[in-house]
Structure formats: structure tokens, C-alpha cells
Write a structure and sequence with these properties.
This protein is α+β, with helices and mostly antiparallel strands. Helix content is 51%, strand content 18%. The chain contains 19 helices and 19 strands. The chain has helices at 2-13, 16-79, 84-92, 98-116, 144-148, 151-159, 171-174, 231-240, 272-277, 314-317, 322-365, 380-400, 402-419, 423-439, 443-461, 469-486, 512-522, 556-564, 570-583, and strands spanning 124-128, 133-134, 164-170, 189-196, 200-202, 208-210, 219-224, 246-250, 257-260, 282-289, 292-300, 307-313, 466-468, 491-497, 505-507, 530-539, 542-549, 588-592, 599-605. A hairpin with a 2-residue loop joins β16 (530-539) and β17 (542-549). Keywords: Kinase, Transferase. It comes from Paenibacillus jamilae. This is Histidine kinase.
């Protein structure tokens, strides 16, 4: 924090030119960096989305192709148990006669060739019994006893005739061929489909045949090389251009590698991060492996449930974006250079008039006001120079008139002091008039004058928007006294005030306009008998005041025009606005005039008023 304050203070203490250049430098750099960052992030998202869509399409197409092939193979496998020739051959074989076994082997080899000979995907097909392994051994041979002790035979027997796919397995480990572990051969890793054959068939006569009682049920096994599962991936990897792309297929239950891009051999356990990441039949995830982000797309096959995946490091996905970084840095450098040049030129253009004015001010400090700065242009700086020269000229004129101005100011001040009219002067004047009236035995006139003086004194002493109801009524009584003398007791006034309200704060002079309206307008055509009644009472959470008279009244359309503002009524409008400002918009004045029954005004205010410091009454 201390270093930040130090740097900030250094910035404040630097010259205007330095501040301007640094500001331009930071602003242009910030803009370029933000634009570069936004462009990079947008491009990265778009590229990642495109790559994800492409990889998903490849996975889906490859899985669909494999599903079609394996489905066709599975359908063919499901036809083997009802083959009449196979049933007859297995039934007729004499397992104790070697020549019978050889003849049976040739027959079964032909049958298997008939079903699977045109399927290039099948690496080897054989039918296994406890006594003999039937089928072609041209590509590979399966030893009988090791086979029946392997998981392949166990799975087939437990399936009881259902077709089962066997994930990748090692030939040497599964069939206990220890001498083959160190060698290299085509069938070192395989995956297979097995099925225990519950042979049944119908002959031409329609007779249903099955294996004789006690005859062993053979097991069909078709072996496939794992390379079959990655043909489509190899083509995509070659076309994609991603240097570190990895792909493969895993068994979804135990995490065994089915096939891969040779980073892992078939039958080995899959990498832990990959096993943890694949949690559903299909998906797309961003996985962190040893600090490296990897885009993983995977999808399960419908036939076997095995999961195909493609993993691409984000460095490969976004590799060409490094060019954007380079161009951004280059563009940033160019912008910085241009910003510095523009900042320098602009600072010179701006600071030159300021420097000239600074030098002129130094000359003016010595008393020389004849100096003028050369004017240039009509922009803001040119206008500033022009006005500086005009100011200098006016200062010179003011100095010349300085002594005359001082003299006139003193004379004016004395005159103002002598002629100042303040409330104290008015009180004294009215009091003098009162005593003059008494000397001339004009007691009534004197009482009117002293009432007016007291009204003025009450009003000027209180500078607030409100005062107590008692004060307002006191003022109103003096006003009514004056008006009764003017109209020769044409009217009387009656009060009905709840005593508890006398100390309540109310708006100043809020009753007077309505009393005045009753006197001036309500009793205009009356010679005597006018009555005014002022009532005040408390209702739930509000205080009500009513001023009513027995005068001429007001027509209904006239009241509507007053409330709509079409007819000017300063007193009513002023009081209504002050009440709403002080107490809230739900309070105010209601004017009523029943035909032929005079007029009454209802004023509703709150028990306490709000502070009006922020909303002064105008």
C-alpha cells in the first residue's frame, strides 16, 4: 500500500507532459490487451467447440461402423446353434477315434468357413470341446485344456447359450503359453466372442433334433485383433494434425484397454485419470492431468458397451493461437510507439499556451499588465489565450478605477447602513404610531396598530416552517380583530379546539387563508350575521381542522376548477402544498360547499411532521 501511494504521489508530482504520455501509454496498452484477450478467448472457445464437434462426429461414426460390423457377426453367431450339418457332425463324431476327429475337424472347418469366411474382421474361428479344438489353425491354435480353465470358457458356460463379448486378453497369459511371452506375433492380444452351442435343428422331414443325452455342448469362439477397433481413429489422427492426440477403446466395467494408439497395450489397465473421467455412456470433459488440460470426448458402443475415446491436449487444440499472441504483442508495441509520439505532440500543443500564460503571469506579478500572448486558432486552447488577454485588459482597467471604486463602495456602505430597514425599526415605528393614536384618543386605531405590530413580531421571530397551534391561533386572533374592525363586526368567530392540540407543531398561518376567504368572499353580500367556526380534533393517526362559515358558498364547478388549477387560489394551493411536503401526499385539504349552506374546509395533517430540510417550501 505504501508503494502504491509513493507511485501515485510521483505521478502527481510529474510534469503535465509526463502525465499525458503515461496516460496514453497505459490507455492504449490496456485497450490492446483487452481486445487481444477477448479475441483470444473467443477464438479459443470457437476452436474448442469445433474440435469437440469434429471429434464427437468421428467417435459416433466409428462406433456406428463397428456396431454394424459386430452386430452382423453376432447375428451370424446366433445362427450357428440351429445349423443341421453342425449338429449332425458333432453328434456323429467318435472322440476316441483320431481319424473320426480329423474328419469332423475338416467338416466343422468348412461349416465355419461358410459362415465367417467372407468376414475379414474375424481373425480366427473355432469350436472347442473337451477332447478337440475344431476349426482352422492356420492363423492360431487354442489348446484345449488351457481354454477350459480360462475365463473365456467360464463366461460361455455361465451364459448358458447367450452370446458374450470378451474384452482384450493376452494369448500367452490366458492359455498358459509361457514360451510366447517374450516373442512377437500377430495374436499376442485379442478380443473374442464366445457362445456355448445348444445345438438344435429340423431335418427335411420336419423332425426336431438335439444333441444326444450326455453329449458335450461345444463352445464357439471367434477371435479378433484389437487393431480392428482403431482403424477409424488412425485415419482421423493422421488427418487432424494434432501431434499428441491419443485414442482408444476401454472396457467400461474393469477399465481394461481394448485398443489404443500403442501408448498402452491391449489387456492392460487403463490410466487412472481416464478411468475416473469416464463416468457415463458418452460425454465431453476438460481433464487436468499433471497440470496439463486435456480435452476428452468419449462414447460407448451399443453392441458391447465398450467406450471409445479421443484425448487431445489443449496445447494442440489451441496451438496455432500462439500466432495471435505474437501478433497481439507486435500490435501492442506499435500502439505503444504511436501512443508515445501522439502524446508528445499533443502535450507540446497543449502545454505551449499554458507555458506562455505561466510566463505572462510572472510578468504580471511585477505589475506589468501590458503583456499579451500571441493568439492562435479558435479551438479551446486558442479561446483560452484570447480570454486570458481579455482578462489582462480588464484587470488593467479595474486597477485604474480602483480608487474610484473604493470610494463609491464606502459611500454606498454608509448609505445602506443609514437606510437599512430592519424589524426593530418597524416595531419602534408602529409603537410610536400606537402612542400617537392614544394621545389623540384614538384607542381603537391604537389597538389595531399594536395588533399589527405583535403579528409582525410573532412572524419575524420564528424562522421555521412550523410553530405551535397556540401561537398560530394567537396570531389568527389578532388578524381577526383587525378584520372585525374593518368590516364593523359583520361576523363572529367561534372556536372548538381540543386543548391537547395547543402545543402541537402545525404549519405557520395555515388557517388564515381560509378565514380570509370566508370574510372576503363568503360574507361579501351580507350586512351582518356572518359566522365562522374553527374546529380541531384527533382521529386515528391524524389531526383534523375544519374552517366553516354560513356564507354564500361556492358552486360545484367552481370548486372543481380550483382543484384542477384552472382558477388561481394562492392561499389554498400554498397551504395544501405545505401540508403535503411536511406530512406526506396522503394528507392535504378538502373543500366542500353544500348548496345554500356556506362553505367548509377540511385540513388533515399528521400527528408529527417530517423534516423538510431537503424539500424547502417555496
Amino acid at each position: 500500500m505504501r508503494q502504491v501511494k509513493y507511485i501515485y504521489q510521483k505521478f502527481l508530482d510529474s510534469s503535465f507532459r509526463t502525465k499525458l504520455m503515461l496516460s496514453y501509454f497505459l490507455l492504449s496498452g490496456f485497450i490492446v490487451l483487452i481486445l487481444g484477450f477477448v479475441y483470444f478467448e473467443t477464438s479459443a472457445r470457437n476452436i474448442t467447440a469445433n474440435v469437440t464437434d469434429g471429434v464427437t462426429s468421428v467417435l459416433r461414426s466409428n462406433n456406428q461402423l463397428l456396431d454394424n460390423k459386430l452386430t452382423a457377426i453376432q447375428k451370424t453367431v446366433d445362427m450357428i446353434p440351429i445349423d443341421h450339418d453342425l449338429l449332425q457332425t458333432i453328434t456323429d463324431v467318435d472322440t476316441t477315434d483320431s481319424s473320426s476327429l480329423l474328419r469332423t475337424d475338416r467338416s466343422i472347418t468348412k461349416i465355419l468357413y461358410r459362415y465367417f469366411g467372407n468376414m475379414e474382421e474375424v481373425y480366427a474361428s473355432q469350436i472347442m470341446t473337451q477332447k478337440y479344438a475344431y476349426g482352422s489353425t492356420e492363423r492360431m491354435y487354442i489348446p484345449v485344456q488351457p481354454f477350459y480353465s480360462s475365463p473365456l470358457a467360464t463366461t460361455a458356460v455361465q451364459a448358458e447359450g447367450a452370446t458374450k463379448w470378451i474384452p482384450a486378453y493376452s494369448y500367452a497369459d490366458t492359455f498358459h503359453q509361457q514360451d510366447l511371452k517374450q516373442g512377437s506375433y500377430d495374436f499376442s492380444s485379442l478380443f473374442a466372442v464366445v457362445k456355448q452351442l445348444h445345438l438344435t435343428a429340423l431335418d427335411d422331414a420336419g423332425t426336431f433334433h438335439t444333441l444326444p443325452e450326455g453329449k458335450e455342448k461345444p463352445i464357439l469362439i471367434l477371435n479378433f485383433r484389437p487393431d480392428l477397433l482403431k482403424v477409424g481413429f488412425e485415419d482421423y489422427a493422421a488427418r487432424s494434425g494434432f501431434a499428441h492426440l491419443s485414442y482408444g477403446m476401454i472396457h467400461d466395467n474393469n477399465g481394461i484397454v481394448m485398443s489404443s494408439d500403442r501408448q498402452q497395450q491391449a489387456g492392460e489397465p487403463v490410466a487412472d485419470w481416464l478411468k475416473k473421467a469416464i463416468t457415463s455412456e458418452q460425454g465431453t470433459k476438460m481433464v487436468n492431468v499433471k497440470g496439463q488440460s486435456i480435452l476428452l470426448v468419449y462414447e460407448a458402443m451399443k453392441t458391447t458397451g465398450w467406450v471409445s475415446y479421443i484425448a487431445i491436449p489443449m496445447e494442440d487444440v489451441l496451438g496455432h493461437l500462439s500466432t495471435i499472441r505474437t501478433y497481439t504483442l507486435f500490435f501492442l508495441g506499435i500502439m505503444m510507439l504511436i501512443a508515445v509520439i501522439l502524446a508528445y505532440l499533443l502535450s507540446v500543443y497543449i502545454s505551449k499556451p499554458i507555458t506562455d500564460m505561466k510566463q505572462a503571469m510572472k510578468v504580471m506579478e511585477k505589475g506589468d499588465f501590458d503583456i499579451r500572448i500571441p493568439e492562435r486558432g479558435y479551438d479551446e486552447l486558442g479561446d483560452l489565450v484570447i480570454r486570458f488577454n481579455q482578462m489582462n485588459e480588464k484587470i488593467k482597467d479595474l486597477i485604474e478605477e480602483n480608487y474610484k471604486s473604493r470610494l463609491r463602495a464606502k459611500e454606498s456602505e454608509l448609505m445602506a447602513l443609514n437606510l437599512q430597514l430592519n424589524p426593530h425599526f418597524l416595531y419602534n415605528t408602529l409603537t410610536t404610531m400606537y402612542w400617537i393614536a392614544l394621545e389623540h384618543k384614538q384607542q381603537e386605531l391604537g389597538q389595531l396598530i399594536i395588533s399589527l405590530a405583535e403579528m409582525l413580531q410573532i412572524t419575524t421571530r420564528n424562522k421555521n416552517d412550523t410553530w405551535s397551534l397556540e401561537t398560530d391561533l394567537n396570531w389568527l386572533e389578532k388578524y381577526i380583530y383587525i378584520m372585525q374592525n374593518r368590516f364593523e363586526n359583520k361576523f363572529t368567530v367561534e372556536y372548538d379546539i381540543d386543548p391537547i392540540l395547543l402545543q402541537m407543531e402545525v404549519p405557520k398561518l395555515f388557517l388564515q387563508p381560509f378565514v380570509e376567504n370566508s370574510i372576503i368572499h363568503g360574507f361579501a353580500e351580507m350586512e351582518s350575521g356572518g359566522q365562522i367556526k374553527i374546529t380541531a380534533w384527533i382521529e386515528t393517526q391524524l389531526v383534523c381542522f375544519k374552517v366553516e362559515d354560513n356564507g354564500l358558498g361556492i358552486q360545484e364547478d367552481h370548486i372543481c376548477r380550483i382543484q384542477a388549477g384552472e382558477i388561481r387560489s394562492t392561499g389554498i394551493k400554498n397551504v395544501d402544498r405545505r401540508v403535503r411536503l411536511l406530512y406526506g401526499m396522503e394528507y392535504g385539504i378538502a373543500l366542500h360547499s353544500p348548496e345554500g349552506k356556506g362553505t367548509f374546509v377540511l385540513i388533515r395533517i399528521g400527528e408529527t411532521h417530517r423534516s423538510n430540510q431537503m424539500t424547502p417550501i417555496q
